[in-house]
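Run log, item B.
One chain of 156 residues. Sequence copied directly from the ordering sheet:
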Amino acid sequence: MKRRLALRRAWVQLPLAVACLFVSTAAMATLGKPEAQIAKVASGLNLKNAETQTSHGYRVDVLSSHDLTVKEYVNPKTKLVFGVAWNGTRMPDLQLLLGFDPATLKGKGAYQPLHYSSIKTPTVTLEMGGRMGLYAGRVIRTDLLPAGVKPSEVAP
């Protein structure tokens, strides 16, 4: 009897644990979120803050490891991440990094995992591609770009 009760509890607790896992992962995304999320995503991707660069109208936080470099572009006025770019020998967890699966974007272009993809919507531009051992990409929230900054400035 106790064993059946324990199994019944496990079946109730397992879906709750899985749901919490997905909620916490989505909460760690940086694109369009406050800059405070950058450290959480860096930890989730096993990256360290390598350097911070400033340019006209924005700041770039460079996160890296031995096999991946991620650049987070921050609007200093709104403190929001408006662009994310990456390159490396491994593909980052895009759900963790962006907060959405690029395959769900509906816009001009097509998503092709592990091939070149270019998708444009009214507020998001995604470009990514690669081959085994060499990946690069960028995603830009065009509605969050600082004044005077061009999308071409967000580069891997």
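Observations after the first pass:
- The CA atoms of residues 124 and 141 lie 5 Å apart.
- Residues 29-146 form a domain with the Pathogenesis-related Protein p14a fold (CATH 3.40.33.10).
Flagged for discussion on Thursday.
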